[in-house]
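Co-fold these.
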Amino acid sequence: MSELMNHVDFRAALEEAIKGKSANKAPFSIAWASGKLSRPHLARWAENHYHYVGPFADYLAYIYARMPERYTEAKDFLLANMYEEEIGGDRHTDLLIRFAESCGTTRERIVDPDNMSPTTRGLQSWCYSVAMREDPIVAVAGLVVGLESQVPSIYRKQTPTLRDKYKFTDEEVEFFDLHIVSDEIHGERGYQIVLEHANTVELQQRCLKICEIGAQMRLLYTTALYWDYVSKDIPIEELEAIERKAA
Amino acid sequence: MPTVVIHRGDKTFEGEVNENTNLVVKAGIRQFPYPNLRYGCGMGKCARCACRVLKGAEHLPEPNWKEKKQLGDERLNEGFRLICQIWLFHDIELDQPTMPLARVPADKTDGNPPATE
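Predicted complex below.
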């Protein structure tokens, strides 16, 4: 039987649960970081990514509605997060579309749900399911801590590559820049909420489990992007060799 | 650890932060300098976080494209920076105007809405 963890141990356990299946190890991420992808590959990524992150405020809205009224700070955080995604500055999805257009695709193609892969549809459905059905604290752990908090480390690695290797302009890659700040805030506040309110052994264990599953879902999604769009152009052996060299 | 001093009107706030800290991120997670640093979008668009750097400017990287676009040459020359765009490694002393900066003329920006209190 597990014991109730203090905040320090619980946070370390959450970080470990996420790290185990980091999407940074997916072949698509390796190809991206090593400058191997073409603009059409990145366009397909954007067409899929839109349907995963586009409804993020919707996911949060379901959690917000089910978050107990007495958790005022948690509710305020969710509301602020939704606001920042949509109308705090530029709408985040508009910046994603700007990047996608610079890769050669169109707004019409991006917003068309027929252009996402079945795996992306699965990730989006999982996000909706977590937001609608899980205990709201567990849902924050899954979507904010498990998924959103991973973004700064991913984009911090990817953004210089987009400028230096793929030769995108600053404006074209703004989507990636902004997430380094906003997702750091969102991820950290997500941690604060989960640490404070997951106050039983059962809730802590469910939070850990959902972080693990969230990281698996993201890895699944990123891996599928490689097999669906890139594998015909870049053999897996080539990426494995890059990964071995980097290790 | 870098020491941060922030002046706002007749008040001064001081604290220490870890290296590689973004003050808007810190304020966003309700730690120093919260609630004493005004900020907005966190993406270099609204300029609500703009401060004049009184000390420590020599340790900062050159203003990035968002700061150039949002602040313009005049304010950059006066020492203003967008705090959401800066990660700190050294001591710094900042002065944040009690009211957000007025908008840079449209022909010098990207047409985003003006910063408001």
